[in-house]
Amino acid sequence: MYRGHFGLREPPFGLTPDTAFTFSASSHQEALNVLLVASTSGEGFIKITGDVGMGKTLLCRRFLSTLGDDYVAAYIPNPMLDFRGLLLALAEELGTPVDREADRHALIKAVNHALLGFARKGRKVIVILDEAQAMPIETLEALRLLSNLETEKRKLVQVVLFGQPELDQTLAEAPIRQLNQRITFHYQLGGLSRDETEQYVSHRLKVAGYAGDRLFAPGSIAALYKHAGGVPRLVNVIAHKALLAAYGEGAPQVSRKHVVRAAQDTPAAVHRVRSFRPALALAAAAVFGVAVWLFVV
Question: Which domain CATH number covers 89?
Answer without folding.
Answer: 3.40.50.300
